[in-house]
Structure to design on (79 residues):
């Protein structure tokens, strides 16, 4: 299920590990997808705890949610 949590100003001050556990982190795609890892290293504000599978799962959920929203909007236009 797609998380309804959104990034807030409070998220900026929280450690990445806490955001990851709460499901409110923003995954670092470079860290998960690139063989040499993240180029920003310790300066990166994205989550390095998310795995490739986690990023792909979130992408599928987002795509599914967008498709459902698009379908709902089309149904409302037809009414």
């Amino acid at each position: 299920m797609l998380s309804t949590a959104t990034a807030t100003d409070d998220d900026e001050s929280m450690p990445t590990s806490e955001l990851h556990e709460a499901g409110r982190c923003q995954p670092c795609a470079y860290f998960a997808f690139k063989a040499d890892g993240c180029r920003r290293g310790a300066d990166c504000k994205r989550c390095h705890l998310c795995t490739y599978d986690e990023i792909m799962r979130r992408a599928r959920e987002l795509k599914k949610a967008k498709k459902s929203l698009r379908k709902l909007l089309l149904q409302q236009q037809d009414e």
Confidence is low (pLDDT under 50) at residues 1-7. Residues 3 and 34 are 26 Å apart (CA to CA). The radius of gyration is 16 Å. The longest helix spans residues 52-78.
